[in-house]
């Protein structure tokens, strides 16, 4: 018997299991201000958290009582529920450093939220008339807010500024609910502030590493990487500004989408991408030289090249070479299928003004214009001016963003199911197999047979942000089993599947079917099972084996087991139906085919026969 009931499970974001806001900790910062030459009793610097994953925003800037980059991570947030976050409406100045004699002019600003929202930090901007970009920050819905306590960071005593200011860190203090975002609040005096700071509540926000994500639409896995090679820099050229070009490196099946240009030094991060669909990436057909530094006097010869992509594909960035004549290798970059990209915008990086090179060049990078996932890839044009083609970035919903190196295998150990938090759904009965018996005789007939059937059950252990889909995964535990008496765990030692996918088990069994059929009638016997769907949270130790041979261990990893099971198998007998020309089984040399219904005919003139008759062909119900 080949009857199959296929039960599918998908992994998706749902309001029931995920919060309205997710957050991540970042330690990449952009400098905004420091108090050099103010004469203040203590040092101060202010920084903006910087993360390139689409959809994440800071809740405010970070202030530290030194001129060094902050050593503590800042929180960046992303909404899962539409309307959980909003950009501030406007800004109000709390303080500026006029009269301080500092090297940098600065304004410290309060963010003003839209109605129904609360802003959780203050920000800074250079200059006395500039206003911060409201689209770089987010405020949260007021019902997602709790309170913490103020801790002093800096007072401007000794600075000579015309106005006083005190800057205080917003900390959780003794609150078990508040989440520390590393933001600050400023006050136009040196006194201890009254009240408490507003903080994001942990009841409404969850670490992105513990949040389930949908993998249905992923086209790429995008890896942040620190493994990069410097290809060229303009040292010795005499250019007015510095530039360095770097190429990101990944495993054998991951590729750069373009070199990264920065104003000297090393980029904070690089990117490589792995295709999850065969048609997503292609090698360039060739390369066209855009510029070389002949005549510049730079210490290294260098040239910039545009990848020439196959039909239907486009480049997100250009590449460099440390010579004037050798083309880049084909594996130095990949082209992206056009339907997996969207329009972005250009951001200026560098031009060679002052270098003395024979030809001019300007370097730009593609960044999102609203929605989009950029990879910091540079593009170049042979003049001092704008690009003459559009900028493109990846579509964020198609990108699985991973902050670590490529993984070879995941192992879930010490898994504990949280049965008290389970969610079980008893669905309607499912028809697994139907058997039709016809009695063409003139007396009642009794028929008994064993009918075998096959069904499938599907399990998954959820996919969370920051982990790769399609990675081989071993789960060293049994699976929850549902019965009318409750939920138990099987004794199965382990399961293997692809992360972000599911494990399907096939089962075959049989059931006795006893049929009594009235004369000149047919009867259907239907094998029915109850299909149960369940979500059960779990905790475990997650071990990651990376492709470079290293291992990572994450304790108290949280996820959700999701499964569909079939049980309580039974036979349902339908009422006899008189035979007519329309419903009678039609015989031919090849057997009987009723489009997936198993059939049999009793035609004995009142004498019982064994079941099934020799001409019966068994045909799957599904």
Automatic annotation (TrEMBL):
Span of the signal peptide: 1-16
Domain of life of the native organism: Eukaryota
Coiled coil stretches, renumbered: none
Domain Aerolysin-like C-terminal: 425-547
Stored CDD domains: PFM_natterin-3-like
Family statement drawn from the similarity comment of this UniProt entry: Belongs to the aerolysin family.
Name assigned to this protein: Natterin-3
Biological source species: Holothuria leucospilota (Black long sea cucumber)
């Amino acid at each position: 018997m080949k009857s199959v009931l296929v039960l599918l499970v998908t992994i998706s974001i749902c309001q029931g299991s995920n919060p309205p806001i997710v957050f991540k900790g970042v330690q990449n910062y952009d400098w905004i201000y420091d108090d050099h030459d103010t004469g203040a009793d203590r040092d101060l610097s202010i920084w903006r958290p910087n993360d390139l994953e689409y959809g994440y925003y800071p809740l405010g800037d970070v202030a530290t009582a030194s001129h060094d980059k902050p050593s503590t991570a800042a929180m960046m947030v992303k909404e899962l529920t539409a309307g959980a976050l909003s950009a501030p409406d406007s800004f109000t100045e709390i303080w500026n450093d006029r009269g301080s004699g500092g090297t940098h002019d600065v304004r410290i600003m309060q963010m003003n939220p839209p109605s129904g929202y609360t802003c959780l930090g203050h920000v800074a901007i250079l200059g006395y008339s500039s206003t911060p970009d409201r689209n770089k920050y987010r405020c949260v819905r007021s019902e997602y807010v709790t309170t913490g306590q103020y801790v002093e960071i800096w007072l401007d005593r000794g600075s000579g500024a015309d106005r006083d200011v005190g800057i205080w860190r917003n900390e959780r203090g003794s609150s078990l609910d508040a989440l520390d975002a590393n933001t600050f609040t400023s006050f136009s005096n040196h006194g201890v502030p009254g009240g408490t700071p507003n903080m994001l509540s942990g009841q409404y926000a969850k670490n992105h590493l513990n949040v389930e994500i949908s993998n249905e639409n992923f086209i790429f896995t995008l890896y942040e990487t620190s493994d990069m090679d410097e290809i060229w820099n303009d040292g010795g050229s005499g250019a007015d500004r510095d530039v360095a070009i770097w190429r990101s490196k990944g495993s054998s099946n991951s590729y750069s989408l373009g070199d990264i240009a920065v104003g000297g030094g090393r980029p904070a991060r690089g990117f490589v991408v792995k295709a999850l669909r065969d048609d997503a990436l292609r090698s360039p057909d060739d390369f066209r030289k855009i510029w070389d530094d002949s005549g510049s006097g730079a210490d290294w010869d260098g040239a910039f090249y545009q990848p020439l992509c196959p039909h239907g594909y486009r480049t997100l960035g250009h590449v460099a070479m440390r010579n004037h004549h050798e083309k880049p290798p084909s594996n130095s970059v990949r082209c992206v299928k056009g339907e997996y990209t969207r329009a972005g915008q250009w951001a200026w990086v560098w031009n060679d003004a002052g270098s003395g090179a024979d030809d001019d060049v300007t370097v730009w990078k593609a960044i999102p214009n609203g929605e989009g996932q950029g990879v910091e890839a540079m593009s170049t044009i042979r003049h001092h001016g704008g690009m003459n083609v559009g900028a493109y970035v990846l579509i964020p919903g198609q990108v699985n963003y991973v902050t670590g190196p490529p993984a070879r295998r995941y192992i879930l150990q010490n898994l504990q199911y949280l049965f008290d938090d389970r969610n079980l759904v008893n669905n309607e009965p499912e028809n697994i197999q139907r058997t039709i018996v016809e009695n063409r005789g003139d007396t009642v007939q009794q028929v008994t047979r064993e009918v075998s059937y096959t069904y499938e059950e599907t399990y998954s252990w959820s996919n969370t942000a920051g982990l790769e889909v399609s990675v081989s995964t071993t789960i060293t535990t049994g699976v929850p089993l549902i019965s009318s008496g409750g939920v138990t765990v099987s004794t199965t030692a382990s399961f293997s599947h692809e992360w972000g996918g599911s494990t399907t088990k096939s089962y075959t069994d049989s059931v006795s079917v006893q049929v009594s059929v009235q004369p000149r009638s047919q009867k259907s016997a239907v094998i029915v099972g109850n299909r149960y769907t369940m979500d059960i949270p779990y905790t475990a130790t997650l071990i990651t084996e990376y492709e470079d041979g290293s291992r990572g261990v994450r304790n108290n990893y949280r996820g959700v087991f999701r499964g569909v099971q079939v049980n309580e198998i039974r036979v349902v007998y339908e009422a006899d139906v008189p035979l007519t020309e329309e419903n009678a089984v039609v015989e031919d040399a090849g057997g009987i085919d009723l489009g997936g219904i198993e059939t049999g005919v009793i035609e004995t003139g009142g004498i019982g026969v064994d079941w099934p008759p020799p001409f019966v062909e068994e045909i799957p119900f599904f």
